[in-house]
Write a structure and sequence with these properties.
The complex is a heterodimer of chains A (318) and B (291). Helix content of chain A is 76%, strand content 0%. Chain A is an all-alpha fold and 318 residues long. In chain B, α1 (2-23) crosses α11 (257-284). By secondary structure, chain B is mainly α. Chain B has 12 helices and no strands. In chain B, 44% of the residues are buried. The chains are: A mainly alpha (318), B mainly alpha (291).
Chain lengths: 318, 291
């Protein structure tokens, strides 16, 4: 187990190295002149050549591309992601200011969607073919087909504009009390968690149905165990493994969804930062954010893989 | 000759079996009817509405059901129903286009990797693994930053990130089909690589790819609309659903229909495609079929 863990972590190093090259070249091949963006001008002719030269030098854009990459990589190894063109602050500092809201939103949407979807999936499986099963499945099909940007707007329309129960945008802070934090979190979490909720509900149901038909579950029932014990001790434990897989696989979608959700709710996280960075052609910021998104994606996948081997003793990797 | 007749008979049987399975599935029938309606609406858009989706302007922000404008008008006074009808064309065509191109590329890559094996397989699959290490939407966004915002660039970006999943599906299927006796037999008879790959292996790998593609059309339409919503895809005044929604949300308080209608259309088209895709998957899966 420890060996497997070490190997998986070490494997991340070459992957991240190649990704840094990819991300660097993608971002630097982008059209649009960051010098002009910085000087707030649309034409080179409109600015004095000295100004252009000075800014180009300041940004290090006068060096050949491979040297720019080496500078970037060297910085990366020291934990320096470069300086944001627009904000004139180290990328890492900008990101660390904004990453907490994103983590907060991602975690709360996972919690909200799992709290709703797993019980729904279990009830559906236990009462297969009943009204509640049909309603739940209809919800699940609609959920995966609903764009989160629209769902978010409808929630705002309903709960903020019409009913006035919840704030329509922004983040809550602890100094205004936990109520404010939760009130601001609820709508964005539901928006971001919608498709996860739908997918996990379906997965829990089908996975549990499959397990409930297995011989060992029949045996457990035959020896007279109460249905709730059969469910808790025998069925759920193996039914949950595919659910974990799905949650892990959906994490990438969650990162993408955070960009949209944060934009709709004016949430001060790194998803919205990504959009502004792209719009302003802030190379180092786009680069740093992409690296951070990618790294967290890889990390989560690793954690999911390790969770498997923990949940299912048969999966012990050689 | 006899080999050929046998093959044709078998494929007919398969097709009929799938059709029967699908017709017996209420959700699939519902999805198909819904999709057919939307396709017809998109195809006959110019005959269904007297207005132009971009040029014709009337009184702005008319409510749903106002005379002459069944779904009201937008802030420029353009007829919303007209824009939605033309938007159906854009979304369906763009979704189909992205999926068919990326499925073709992915299948070709998977076929080559699985059939030739060795260093070709190694190289192609390392590239696939690497790209899978990126979160899908973030990669698409970075590509959009590189290409610049427009509908065709959004489609290109999606092709560049979507082919990967087909390559994996195709490769794993090729690996199993490659070992079949009939492939050995054709090779022994002196069949060329190209002939074996395209005449014998590829047709037997298509089922899972078709399922994957059907299920992906809906997702692709959603992602395209999402990119347009963020201002990275189709640009105004193009009547793309995501773009219509993005424009309409500014008038959320005064004109609710500009927010509600485009979303309902997106849900309808994506849901119909998902229902069909799910049914197709079940119909092609012998394990599910038996139940």
């Amino acid at each position: 187990m420890l060996q497997y863990f070490t190997r998986r972590v070490l494997y991340l190093i070459p992957v991240l190295f190649v990704m840094s090259i990819l991300i660097f070249s993608m971002v630097h091949l982008a059209p649009g002149d960051p010098v002009l963006v910085l000087l707030n001008s649309s034409e080179r002719a409109a600015v004095s050549p000295e100004m252009i030269e000075a800014v180009t030098k300041e940004l290090g854009l006068d060096k050949p591309l491979y040297q720019q990459y080496l500078v970037f990589l060297g910085g990366l190894l020291r934990g320096d992601l470069g300086t944001s063109y627009q904000l004139r602050k180290p990328v890492l500092e900008v990101v660390s200011d904004r990453i907490w809201p994103t983590i907060q939103l991602a975690l709360s949407s996972i919690v909200v969607s799992l709290l709703l979807s797993i019980p729904l999936g279990i009830i559906s499986a236990m009462r297969r073919g009943s009204l509640i099963d049909n309603v739940t499945m209809a919800f699940a099909v609609t959920g995966v087909s609903t764009p989160n940007f629209w769902f978010g707007l409808i929630l705002i329309l309903l709960f903020a504009v019409k009913l006035g129960w919840l704030p329509s945008f922004g983040i809550g802070y602890m100094k205004d009390g936990i109520g404010s934090v939760l009130a601001h979190l609820l709508l964005p979490s539901l928006t971001l968690g919608l498709s996860l909720m739908a997918i996990v509900t379906r997965m829990t149901r089908s996975s549990l149905l499959e397990v409930l038909g297995m011989d060992y579950v029949q045996t457990a029932r035959a020896k007279g165990l109460a249905e709730s014990v059969v469910l808790r001790r025998h069925a759920l434990r193996s039914a949950i493994i595919p659910v974990i897989t799905v949650v892990g696989l959906q994490f990438g979608a969650l990162l993408g969804g955070s960009v949209i959700t944060e934009t709709i709710f004016a949430w001060p996280g790194i998803g919205r930062l990504m959009i502004t960075a792209i719009q302003r052609r802030d190379f180092p910021l786009v680069q740093g954010l992409t690296l951070i998104f990618t790294f967290s994606f890889l990390l989560i996948n690793l954690i999911v893989d390790l969770t498997y081997s923990f949940c299912d003793p048969r999966i012990r990797y050689d | 000759m006899s080999v050929h007749t046998a093959k044709i008979k078998k494929s007919e049987g398969m097709f009929r079996l799938i059709m029967r399975e699908m017709m017996g599935n209420k959700a699939a029938v519902l999805g198909s009817v819904l999709l057919l309606g939307l396709i017809l609406a998109a195809a006959f858009a110019p005959y269904l509405t007297p207005y132009d989706p971009i040029m014709d302007m009337y009184r702005p922000l008319q409510k749903v059901g106002s005379p002459g404008h069944l779904l009201g008008t937008d802030d420029y006074g353009r007829d919303l129903l007209t824009r939605m009808l033309y938007g159906t064309r854009i979304s369906l065509l763009a979704g189909l286009f992205v999926v068919s191109i990326s499925a073709t590329i992915g299948t070709a890559v998977g076929l080559a990797a699985g059939y030739f094996g060795g260093w070709i397989d190694n190289l192609l699959m390392r590239i696939v693994d690497l790209l899978l290490g990126f979160p899908f939407f973030i990669l698409a966004l970075v590509l959009m930053a590189l290409l610049g915002p427009s509908l065709s660039n959004a489609m290109l970006a999606l092709v560049l990130v979507s082919w990967i999943s087909y390559a994996r599906v195709a490769r794993s299927k090729v690996l199993s089909v490659r070992e079949e006796n009939y492939v050995e037999a054709i090779r022994a008879l002196g069949g060329s690589n190209t002939r074996i790959m395209f005449r014998h292996i590829l047709p037997n790998c298509l089922a899972p790819i078709v399922v994957q593609a059907t299920l992906n059309v809906g997702g692709t339409i959603l992602t395209l609309a999402g990119l347009s919503f963020l201002g990275m895809g189709a640009q105004p005044p193009t009547p793309e659903w995501g773009a219509i929604l993005s424009e309409g949300k500014q008038f959320m308080r005064r004109a609710v229909h500009l927010t509600v209608v485009p979303g309902v259309a997106i849900v309808a088209v994506v849901m119909s495609l998902n229902l069909i895709g799910d049914a197709l998957r079940d119909a092609l899966d012998p394990k599910v079929r038996k139940r």
